[in-house]
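F.,

This is the one I mentioned.
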């Protein structure tokens, strides 16, 4: 009985993997936030036929941006730019263009997340057996089939933004203001050195790097954390060829839900700004956004 059940499982599992390989079907839903990060990393590492020439590295601030298909979004909610760098380094081919969110670039990566992709045998198995990847778990397949598809090219209605009450928003903003008033210089410098090594690898291979800043609430802009990050990144990278800067637009009217995360409609508006300005940057050689 056990032998027969095992044989049936092997046949079904083999058929499932053959179907996924031949159909190249992609399932994008996930059950929880951390799994979203794993799925994004797995797709980047294991989908050999879909290796993007451009990739975005960031945090939850840029994780839901509306990007063109040519840019792979490797921004990881709850994780950091450092984790995205480790994912990119897992494969041998470096992307031609890298967009790096500057807001929290300095935070250290997660060792436990890195360990998921450090086993070569495990990586090889998931390359050949797509049924072992998180995106192809039965619950995720079911969610992908049942969940209604949204129009990715339609601006979300502002009235549908999940904006907290004024009192709650004030408390959230006050908390962010307290955080932005202090700077961990050692942490920022360590992150700067890590980023420098990665940026030099990208540009040495003939690639381009665009360091972009996601807009935050106006009261956070003049505070030490924002100003120190801007200054240190400029000093370190502005003299390098093929490194571009995209600051948040001045005097913007974007709405945040907690001081740092843009509402759905504002994120759409910033995404359109991002598309237009990065296209302009790369079409004008050696031109940087002031």
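My design for it:
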């Amino acid at each position: 009985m056990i032998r027969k059940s095992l044989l049936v499982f092997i046949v079904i599992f083999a058929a499932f993997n053959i179907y996924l390989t031949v159909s190249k079907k992609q399932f994008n839903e996930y059950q929880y936030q951390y799994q979203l990060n794993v799925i994004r990393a797995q797709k980047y590492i294991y989908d050999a036929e879909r290796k993007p020439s451009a990739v975005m590295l960031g945090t939850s601030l840029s994780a839901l941006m509306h990007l063109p298909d040519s840019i792979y979004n490797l921004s990881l909610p709850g994780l950091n730019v450092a984790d995205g760098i480790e994912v990119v380094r897992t494969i041998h081919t470096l992307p031609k263009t890298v967009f790096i969110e500057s807001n929290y670039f300095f935070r250290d990566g997660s060792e436990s997340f890195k360990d998921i992709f450090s086993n070569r045998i495990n990586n090889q198995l998931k390359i050949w057996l797509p049924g072992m990847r998180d995106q192809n778990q039965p619950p995720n397949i079911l969610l992908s089939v049942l969940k209604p598809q949204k129009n990715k090219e339609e601006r979300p209605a502002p009235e549908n933004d999940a904006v907290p009450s004024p009192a709650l928003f004030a408390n959230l903003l006050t908390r962010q203001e307290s955080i932005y008033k202090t700077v961990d210089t050692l942490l920022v410098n360590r992150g700067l050195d890590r980023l420098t090594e990665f940026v030099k690898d990208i540009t040495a291979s003939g690639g381009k790097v665009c360091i972009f800043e996601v807009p935050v609430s106006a009261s956070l802009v003049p505070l030490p954390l924002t100003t120190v990050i801007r200054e240190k990144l400029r000093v370190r990278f502005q003299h390098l060829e093929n490194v571009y800067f995209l600051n948040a637009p001045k005097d913007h009217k974007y709405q945040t839900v907690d001081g740092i995360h843009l509402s759905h409609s504002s994120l759409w508006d910033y995404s359109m700004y991002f598309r237009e300005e990065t296209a302009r940057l790369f079409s004008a050689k050696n031109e940087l956004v002031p």
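Confidence is low (pLDDT under 50) at residues 286-290.

Talk soon.
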